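Chain X:
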Amino acid sequence: MLTTSIKKGRIPFYRGSEMPTWKEKLAGRMDPLLAEEIDVFETQMVLRRQGKLDEKIFAETRLRRGC
């Protein structure tokens, strides 16, 4: 675990895209429905930042899902 490594003085160093994603770290250990919900959220965030998803729609969706 990362916090354990830091406490022991071993801080991991990643270059560029070598750092594992949450999907890679949690593959097989996460509820597929939760993983899908996170994917949807990440996609919506990208669209929101690009101006392709209206802020009101984004907020309504998040409120409906309890996020």
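Chain Y:
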Amino acid sequence: MVESSARVFAWSFRLKDIPKMGFPIIFSMISLPTVSNSCTFTSSLATTPVTMFLRDESGENGVQMISFSLIFSRSDLRIAILNAALCLFVSIFRSKQRQRQFHRCTWMTVFKETWPRFSRPGISMSLVESKDGIQCFTFEHNRDYQQVQFKFLDAVESMDPNNFVVLLQLNPYHIDSLLQLSDVCRIQEDQETARDLIERALYSFECAFHPVFSLTSGTCRLDYCRPENRAFYLVLFKHMIFLEKRGCPRTALEYCKLILSLDPDNDPLCMLLIFDFLCLRCREYTTLIRLYEEWEVHRNLSQLPNFSFSVALSYYHLSQQEDISPVENQQLKQKSNVLLQNALIMFPGALMPLLDLCTVQPDAVVSSHAFFGPSSQIGQPPALLELVSLYVGRCHSLWKEAGLMLWLEENVRKGLKRVDSQDPYLEDCQNKRKQRYQSAPRNIHRHVLMSEIKEATATLPLEVTTQPGMGFDPLPPLDSIVSYIRPERYDLNALKFSALYDTGLLMVAGWLNED
């Protein structure tokens, strides 16, 4: 009987398969003595090394919890075998558990097994102020993270992307290094790696959230003037762009709302310039119209070309729905016509570039008319040209439907009739264009830089394009709040050595020989 039981046990499973098996599977392979109430073991997620669920074969009796020692007391042999197997299993299981790392449950991204082992990089979040239901937070860097940040700035000045790789080998969750290396990979058309680096930075940020910081409440604020907070804005923005390019505009819209909620008054990344595009991409027409109606009074959204055209486009799409009455259809269509004509009269310089990108040739009446001719584009104020170019470069793909082109052509003709008849709205628009678009605020320039739409970047003023571009902090605010200061560096060799010192790559001798 001893030999028979041993053969059964040896045949049932191999030692290398033990870590893949649960206790119920292992014990079911062993011939157990019959229990007086004719019960059998069943697998359960709640099993433990010392207790197990016992269920009646008929399924009528309740679940009881019993001890292994009571079951196996009749057979010393089987106890010895089970004890040996149990000890082996527990030792292997514990060794596996020591190697396994449990990761925090996050909402925005999920930890990937291909990422380096996560340990807190030195970022934390604190509550600065709570007033009138609004909570102001800020990210903070501890002393160790500040030292890594100084090495990162040395790596930036070295102009060598390999130094970012070296820095990330030692500090795999340093945010600015992840941002900068992501830009390098994206320029080299390695989109997968670029996106993965941004997701890793996003995970690091989420692990540092304050317990009361909420992504969905709309009452949490982060001051963009603090450099520690700016990186979070940039990571969210880049993640949003990657989502939209991957065909996830609905998720990208939610990230756009999140970024806007962090500072809706100042809107440091000017998310209103992309909000309409994402709404149209995911067909959230009512969301766009609602925001326009609620914010128009205090934000003058009609003065932005993207909102003027996109709201008209939203009303048009709503009028094409089949589940509305003929009366409602007529009202929506009329509303969309008026809004589109007003947009064309307010921003005449948008029509020809839009038709050009849509590969549509305008008829002679439109192309020869002075209102939509070359003078309408040349005579635009610089800030208006920047906004129009951004809208056309980003949203021209939304106009490539055949039905939309017919609708656009119809309203261009109606708009020209209003121009020829000297509609009072025409003079009002001319005055607004002269007064309100002389210079664009800094957040618009920042948005254009980060969007990388060539039609818009070509219109940036010299004071923006001549500044050194930093992907980890594009066009920082002039009133930045600096919480710690980088120590001065006087020796170029010290710069080089700082980037590689902690890696143990002793390349200093080569630099000394060069000097």
